[in-house]
Design brief:
Strand order of the largest sheet: 1-3-5
Distance between the termini: 145 Å
Number of strands: 6
Helix content: 10-25%
Shape: flat
Largest sheet: 3 strands, parallel
Number of helices: 5
């Protein structure tokens, strides 16, 4: 039988292991280099807490490789990974989850599980068909979604003003050398006024 558990009989489940005291003289067995070897990076303090991707001081691979163009580059703001994000909701989801005449708000979309939270902007996209009259309130609408909602008799209420796209400025090209030469020859061929 096991002994009765008392304060005087308490002991740890695992036997305690004494901590190695290093650097306390050559006679201790762990003096001089304290088990770290001679010199080098791993003999220094903090050498086992290097950041991810550290390559011993040489130029790391993410800095050696060329920057990528397009959406994958961190420099491609606001298109790249740091772009502002909107939660997309398609019309086919509204058709499946809401009854005719329903008021589709951000809270209603959250209850139906179509969006994760109401802190991120919601944009309604036009994928799918909509046959029900709905009043949809969201931060943004694609042109197709707005058209289909209004065609079904509903209304699309935007919480943010749509961005007005400015027309691109087309730079005027200087006239080609041939055109200038032709104009000069035409002017030369024109008859001059009568001289007395």
């Amino acid at each position: 039988m096991t002994d009765e558990l008392n304060l005087h009989s308490l002991k740890p489940a695992q036997p305690r292991k004494e901590r190695k005291r290093v650097g306390r003289g050559l006679g201790s067995g762990k003096g001089r280099y304290s088990g770290r070897g001679i010199k080098g990076q791993k003999s220094r303090s903090g050498s086992h807490k290097m950041p991810a991707g550290f390559e011993g001081g040489q130029m790391p691979i993410d800095m050696r490789l060329a920057k990528l163009r397009g959406n994958t580059s961190a420099d491609a703001r606001p298109v790249g990974p740091f772009r502002t994000y909107t939660q997309p909701v398609n019309l086919r989801d509204l058709e499946a989850r809401f009854d005719a005449g329903a008021d589709v708000t951000l809270e209603a979309l959250l209850e139906q599980g179509l969006i994760k939270n109401t802190r991120i902007d919601v944009k309604i996209l036009g994928s799918g068909e909509l046959s029900k009259k709905l009043t949809v309130t969201a931060h943004g609408f694609s042109a197709t979604a707005r058209q289909k909602i209004e065609a079904a008799g509903g209304t699309a209420v935007a919480l943010k003003e749509p961005k007005v796209r400015r027309p691109k400025k087309v730079a005027k090209r200087p006239p080609a050398v041939e055109d200038v030469a032709e104009e000069a020859t035409v002017e030369a061929d024109e008859p001059q006024g009568d001289s007395d």
